[in-house]
Please model this.
Amino acid sequence: EAAARRTGISSSSRKQKGRTLQKEAAAEYKAAFPFLQGNDVLSRPMGSPGSDLILSTAALEVLPYDFEMKNVETFSTWATIDQSLKRCEVVAQALTPCLVARRNRVKAVVVLPLGHVMELWRFAAGGAAAPAAATPFPSVGWLLAAMRVRFNPKQHNTDGELRVAVQLAVKFATRAVDAEGVVDDDGRVTAGPLRIAVCTKKRMGFWKTWDVEVAAAKARGDGSLPALAFNRGDRAGTPVYLAMPLAEHLRLLQGRWARLHPDDSGPA
Model:
């Protein structure tokens, strides 16, 4: 209610925008996997507790997520992620928090822990034999230690350190094929069509930061997509999260399913 007052949007309008995003996201995920039927992915009624998408057992095989959705002009990134994380901790299934956000004139963005994205990249590069990530929630310190990179523990986490960690994560997950993990002149890391920028600000204005990456992608004009790796600015305490366009998330999920089930059109 307070947020609605600050933005001048009525509570009913705010709920309607949220409901619209949930329904559109459900339709997008079902369209990507036609074997999912209408009741396999449903928008949760506004105001009721739980993941913003209600998933059947079949849908959970494709979408192992707890969804939190925001169709607003501003939101608290970490509070929203933490909201989904708390739900993940109390459910029996091993779910991964997945934030889907959108605002006026901006296409939907998906935010996932980097460890999970590494697993999706592994499937894209290595097929069904791709191992699961050691942790779905790697921090900068964990990534650097896992890749045997020395760092000064007395120094604070910096954008440079996060960039190296992301670069190594991409190279490891994709087996460093082609240009994967290359850092361009603007300091963005290549991962398939994504050009990943980094941010270690403790308080990050998500849409303001994302707008910069969208503008940069348009300026490149090469078909590459914006992406953003971020944490709270600490080396060990906070996992690294990755934001990407919803369309790229769908592509990676389709690749994962195809590798896991090459002769299967859908869950039994």
